[in-house]
Amino acid sequence: MAELLKGKPVADAIGEDLAPRIATCTSAGVPPALAVVRVGAREADLSYERGATKRCETLGIDLKKFVLDESCTQDELMGTIARVNEDDAIHGCLLFRPLPAHLDEEAACAALDPAKDVDGITAGSLAGVFANQRVGFPPCTADACLHILAHYGIPLDGANAVVVGRSLVIGKPVSMMLQAANATVTMCHTHTRNLPAVCAAADILVVAVGRARAIGADAVNAAQVVLDVGISWDEQAGALCGDVDFDAVEPHVAAITPVPGGVGSVTTAVLALHVVQAAERVLEHTPRTD
User: Fold this and answer.
1) Residue 31 pLDDT more than 80?
2) Per-residue pLDDT at 288 exceeds 60
3) Mean pLDDT in residue range 55-82
4) What kind and span of H or E run contains 126?
5) Quick check: helix, strand or coil at residue 159?
6) Paired sense of beta strands 255-256 and 204-207, if any
7) What percent of the chain has pLDDT over 90?
């Protein structure tokens, strides 16, 4: 039986680490604050917003909501982002995507100040990930993968890691972050030839392909650690499932994240971490008055 890499212990550990840091920022006059910008009321957005709200309330992070009607104009959206950028009391911004089709999402992302981009949606943040520099922040879910590996003591130095998926949200940034930790990374996708064989050679397998149960027992090995980033609704089973066929894979690997309760449950904790880090960066550049 594989070790279950549950997300809750990881999120709890992040929260414990953040508590004194939030207190330090607040006592210095820089209480960490997150802005949520949401257009419309997609259930996926509302669900994540509820999780983020609960996490911020628990930790003592201020959360300001900017909710626009689904039929809002581009000017209204850009004006909201400008307000967030100009408000010194806001340290991070979460812009829910995808935006309605009539809005220019690329322009909206580009307008956000990278210093407040706590979910890695701006070119500046992504450049920071690719250059391994402290510019903006990586996408929360990609960073959650690294936190899970660190929490459970899974060594990355010299490890052979395979990432299935090439999106800017998960695949590409997590590949660069694994490389920065000295893993040797192979990035695959649904067009990769002999995909199961490539995956089966990995020490660490990160799956973010966006297809339910796309990875089966033929793609793993007994010493492997599997991070399943996907989440889908299985109509037939009436339950959530991941990109990995958990029932088929779990008996044949060393460790695996469950879905739900794995990577996804760490993302709001990482979001809070990024907000606090953003506040700390502001504090670093705040002149002392004593």
Assistant:
1) yes
2) no
3) 98
4) helix 123-131
5) coil
6) unpaired
7) 91
Structure-derived torsion over alpha carbons of residues 92, 38, 83, 122, reported in degrees to the nearest 10: 50
Contact 122, 151 (CB under 8 A): no
In angstroms, the CA 185 to CA 167 distance is 15
> At which residue do the structure tokens 């297809």 appear?
211
DSSP count for the chain of H helices, then E strands:
10, 11
Cβ proximity of 38 and 65 under 8 Å:
yes
pLDDT at 233: 85
Domains and their CATH numbers in the chain: 28-114 (3.40.50.10860), 140-264 (3.40.50.720)
pLDDT at 236: 80
Cα(177)–Cα(218) distance, integer angstroms: 27
Which backbone phi and psi does 192 adopt, to 5 degrees?
A: -65, 130
Q: Which two tokens stand for residue 170?
A: 């998960």
**For residues 69 and 26, what is the distance between their CA atoms, to the nearest angstrom?**
33
Integer Cα distance of 246 and 60 in angstroms: 36
Q: Which of 29-38, 125-134, 250-259 has the lowest mean pLDDT?
A: 125-134
Q: Which residues of 189-226 are buried (b: 16+ CB within 10 A; e: fewer)?
A: eeebeebeebbbebbbbbbbbbebbbbebebbeeebbb
Place of tokens 């689904």: 70
| Residue 164, token pair as written in the block | 């299935």
Q: Which of 106, 209, 137 is nearest to 166 (CA)?
A: 209
What's the pTM value of the predicted model, to 2 decimals?
0.95
Q: What are the tens digits of pLDDT across the range 263-272?
A: 999 999 999 9
203: pLDDT strictly greater than 70? yes
Quick: pLDDT tens for 2-23.
999 999 999 999 999 999 999 9
Radius of gyration over every alpha carbon of the chain, rounded to an integer in angstroms: 19
